[in-house]
Amino acid sequence: MAFKQQQKMADHSNKLDIVQATAALKSLRSLRNNVGTLFHSLAEGIGLQSGQDSKESKFVAELQQQLVIVQTGVKEFEEAITSVDSVQVQLGNSGYLNQDCTPDALNLYESLITSYRWTDNLAEYSGYATTLLSQNSLKRSTLIPAKRRRIQPSSQNVPPQQIDNVINSLCRSLGDNMKIETFRPYGSSTVLQITLGKIMKGIVVLKRLMVEWVVVKGATEDLMTEDGKIDMWGESRYKVFKKVTENANAAMLHFYSPAYPDLAIRSFLTWFNSYQSLFTSPCKKCGHHLHNLLPPTWRDLRNLDPYHEDCKP
Description:
Elements: H1 2-44, H2 55-83, H3 103-134, H4 160-174, E1 178-183, E2 190-196, E3 200-207, E4 210-218, H5 239-254, H6 261-273, E5 298-299, E6 306-307
Antiparallel strand pairs: 1-2, 2-3, 3-4, 5-6
Helix pairs in contact: 1-2, 1-3
């Protein structure tokens, strides 16, 4: 909320700067018109409407009146300029581009000014965000007591045999509808190919015992590329499984716990196994099977209840 208020204040300040700059430009345009009228009078002179005797006095009076108008315009323009909060951008030697009469060089100078101002705004907003995020005590990983922080998490050094034992025990506890095959195509990193009945398939990439990436596809889609390798980056061609992939990666972050890796992967696979009822269970909130032509693609992270994307709490 504080960041939004600061951003609103910054936007309001920018709007005020635009209003003040617009007023300064209007006063400058008026000043230029008055100066043009003055020079026009000097060049053309004043007609002999009052006779030859009053020609000189009438001409001097007219010039004095126009000079007063120009002087007033100059004062108004100076006041408008002082109210504008001009930003001094230091461009070094590139500032000499503004003195070049070539149109390409002038466009380059304007682009530099725009990019530097954008960078300054980005640095300002980043400072606000850093201040607010530093006050947030929530972390991605589970908080570890101070006495145990120096101990290396057990998820960093796990032999492949232990990973296989954990996966096999999970397969037995989750039932026969979920089949898990283990691959190691790129060294020590483990890739799980999960088949959830005749509903969908999934690829789960592990780093030791921590889930790093999830891809979900339909039961009729192929998880292999044309050259026989596991397709870890390809998306499903069905919108429903794209939504399930997004939700699975969100659940991966929710269950992330380096301090308790066995519990983390068990919780994630239990959550993933709840998609056995993807096309049969109605939404817990609205009670319908379809909403916007999609079944309930979200599963609650605590009680595994199905929800549509627009109905989830």
